[in-house]
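To whoever is on call:

I kicked off a structure prediction for a single chain this morning and the downstream step that reads the tokens threw a length-mismatch warning. I double-checked the sequence; it's 322 residues and nothing unusual in it as far as I can see. Pasting both halves so you can look.
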Amino acid sequence: MSTQYSLPFESPIMELETKLKELESFSQEQDIDVSHELQNMKDKIEKTRTEIYANLSAWQKVQVARHPDRPYTMDYINTMTTDFVEIHGDRIHRDDRAIIGGFAKIDGQKVMIIGSQKGRDTKSNVECNFGCAHPEGYRKALRLMKLADKFNTPIITLIDTKGAYAGLESEERHIAEAIAVNLRECFNIKVPIICVIIGEGGSGGALGIGIGNRILILEHAYYSVISPEGCAAILWKDRAFSDKAAEALKITGNDLLKLKLADEVIPEPKGGAHVDHKIAADSLKTAVMKHLAELSKMSAEEIMQDRYDKFRVMGEFEGAVE
């Protein structure tokens, strides 16, 4: 997917691409064959892009995770599923567009797919509240999970949110209670749950649909109890230290693997998922189906115990307070 938006650390790539366009224009205007030089320039661009993306800092990965052209939940649903039937509302208040979900098929396998949804422009962002769900969004998600459980259908959640909406309306309708109930009830679901962080995995807003048998994360996504900016504002009283906070929080896929909080890092196309939605979706589908095949061999009791055990062993302690 082509894009005009570039990230700060991509400036060397942008400079080379500008030179490439100038060389192509010169070739056409002067009718001179510079195909060899053009190919060398293209090779240099790819090499530079590979080197940059292979050595991203935690803060740079956060920037990639927030790229406006990055694929969102509906992009993945449209690309890797068929027969998607969206289910609306929480049966209590309203339909929260920040979380969407419904039944679908992936290579013939019936699944319930639920995920955070952001917008591409002002109108769609307002409609889905910039991907920050209200309490009714989490209650809708739980309703869909219980529906999947009733029909013995595996659940896939796609997480991409800065966090749950922290406004007055959320507090009035009990956002903390809604998320807490989801955490509790997800341990009682008898079908496999696979959670994938596809972009931003922020705070309890992510955890509200993040209790699963497998936790997967895309290569340039992040998962954290707080945003780097929020952490920097608290610890250093200055958001200018966001890059330092991102490193300290250990929020990247490789960090999560080492901490045993994630089960797999899913590779992205060179330059990030925003470069090619199709390749990103194919990688995600391959990983999900692999883990789903493993979990499908387990009984309902084993699935529940596996999920419980997974979260019980999270966190290590070097000593105890006497």
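Update from on-call: the warning came from a stale cache, not from the record. Cleared it. Sanity check on the structure: The mean pLDDT is 92.
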